[in-house]
């Protein structure tokens, strides 16, 4: 209930900017029902089947991120890519020719070895019980906490999908879409505008290849000029950093290793790295949310937790459906 209350406070805070008072109440009621865990998912799903499951996942995530801090944003991103295509079914983890994971668009994804390590231990302790989809969802929560982000309870009970297609990987946003396109995508998986702005806040940590924004530096939209929405000093810095398209740049130039609201204040200063990031402040529909999150860190973290629960509920396979299974190895579907 705490998250529901914080979410309502957030909507009231921005009502004078983005909504009329009547619409605030309507939005609060609608969104509160949307982010409740699906009836077939439960936070105590493994309490009897595998009581140490969450603890094992948390310990493994902590150990790996301690050795390599870049895994924290990587696991959050991997979870988003999984849920964005076919729902949260672990399809991004399938490692075969023609899978999402094998696609060109997935080449910079990482964190697979961490998930494999968790699965190996869970199979030793609780054979054929904990799904890869649940592992990835919980790992994303734990990675967020280790980066300095909020805690939320993860509802469990997802099954693993058997289908993963490389051609579908291009459907995930690449960093240059406009807000209308992003909204159409996010609404297509059952989320909304507020979720879009909140989940984009994960870019407060992590890095991007220069390939994702190189056009902003030299030839924005084929104009032969840089993106006019880019801070001039930041433009010069990025030109120095991006000698090759494969070079990596922090998504948050100010506090790149801290999960905070600097990402949003960067957008207000025209220091958003990806075109999709900066567009959140350039577009009148999403700018009020950016301003609210930038000035009220508690509200951002509360809403981020709510939106992550909603993301984790997208298109899940549950129950005894013949479309899902509990994979023994996250890389492959079970043998017939």
UniProtKB/TrEMBL annotation:
One of its GO terms (biological process) is response to oxidative stress. SUPFAM superfamilies: Heme-dependent peroxidases. InterPro entries: Haem_peroxidase (IPR002016), Haem_peroxidase_sf (IPR010255), Peroxidase_pln (IPR000823), Peroxidases_AS (IPR019794), Peroxidases_heam-ligand_BS (IPR019793), Secretory_peroxidase (IPR033905). Its cofactor is Ca(2+); heme b. Residues 1-20 form the signal peptide. PROSITE patterns: PEROXIDASE_1, PEROXIDASE_2, PEROXIDASE_4. The record marks 77 as: Transition state stabilizer. Its main location: secreted. It is found in: Secreted. Removal of H(2)O(2), oxidation of toxic reductants, biosynthesis and degradation of lignin, suberization, auxin catabolism, response to environmental stresses such as wounding, pathogen attack and oxidative stress. These functions might be dependent on each isozyme/isoform in each plant tissue. This is Peroxidase. It comes from Arachis hypogaea.
């Amino acid at each position: 209930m705490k998250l529901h209350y914080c979410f309502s406070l957030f909507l009231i805070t921005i009502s004078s900017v983005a909504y009329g008072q009547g619409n605030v109440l309507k939005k609060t009621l609608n969104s509160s029902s949307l982010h409740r865990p699906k009836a077939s998912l439960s936070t105590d799903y493994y309490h009897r089947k595998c009581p140490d499951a969450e603890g094992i996942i948390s310990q493994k995530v902590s150990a790996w991120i301690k050795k390599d801090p870049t895994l924290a944003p990587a696991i959050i991103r991997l979870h988003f890519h999984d849920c964005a295509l076919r729902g949260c079914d672990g399809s991004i983890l399938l490692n075969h020719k023609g899978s999402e994971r094998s696609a060109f668009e997935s080449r910079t994804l990482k964190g697979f070895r961490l998930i494999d390590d968790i699965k190996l231990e869970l199979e030793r302790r609780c054979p054929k019980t904990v799904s890869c989809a649940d592992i990835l969802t919980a790992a994303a929560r734990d990675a967020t906490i280790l980066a300095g982000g909020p805690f939320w309870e993860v509802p469990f009970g997802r099954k693993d999908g058997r289908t993963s297609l490389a051609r579908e990987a291009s459907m995930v946003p690449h960093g240059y879409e406009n807000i209308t396109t992003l909204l159409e995508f996010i609404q297509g998986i059952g989320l909304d505008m507020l979720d879009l702005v909140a989940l984009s806040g994960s870019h407060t940590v992590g890095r991007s290849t220069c390939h994702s924004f190189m056009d902003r530096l030299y030839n924005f939209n084929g104009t032969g000029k840089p993106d006019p929405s880019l801070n001039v000093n930041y433009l010069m810095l990025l030109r120095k950093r991006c000698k090759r398209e494969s070079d990596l740049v922090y998504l948050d130039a100010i506090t790149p290793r801290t999960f905070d609201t600097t990402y949003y204040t960067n957008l207000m200063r025209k220091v958003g790295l990806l075109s999709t990031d900066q567009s959140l402040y350039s577009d009148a529909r999403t700018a009020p949310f950016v301003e609210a999150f930038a000035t009220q860190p508690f509200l951002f973290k509360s809403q981020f937790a709510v939106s992550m629960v909603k993301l984790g509920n997208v298109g899940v396979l549950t129950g005894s459906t013949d479309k899902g299974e509990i994979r023994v190895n996250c890389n492959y579907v079970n043998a017939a």
